Amino acid sequence: EAQVTQNPRYLITVTGKKLTVTCSQNMNHEYMSWYRQDPGLGLRQIYYSMNVEVTDKGDVPEGYKVSRKEKRNFPLILESPSPNQTSLYFCASSSRDPTDTQYFGPGTRLTVL
Amino acid sequence: DQQVKQNSPSLSVQEGRISILNCDYTNSMFDYFLWYKKYPAEGPTFLISISSIKDKNEDGRFTVFLNKSAKHLSLHIVPSQPGDSAVYFCAASARADNRKLIWGLGTSLAVNP
Question: Prior bond to A81 cis, omega within 30?
Answer without folding.
Answer: no
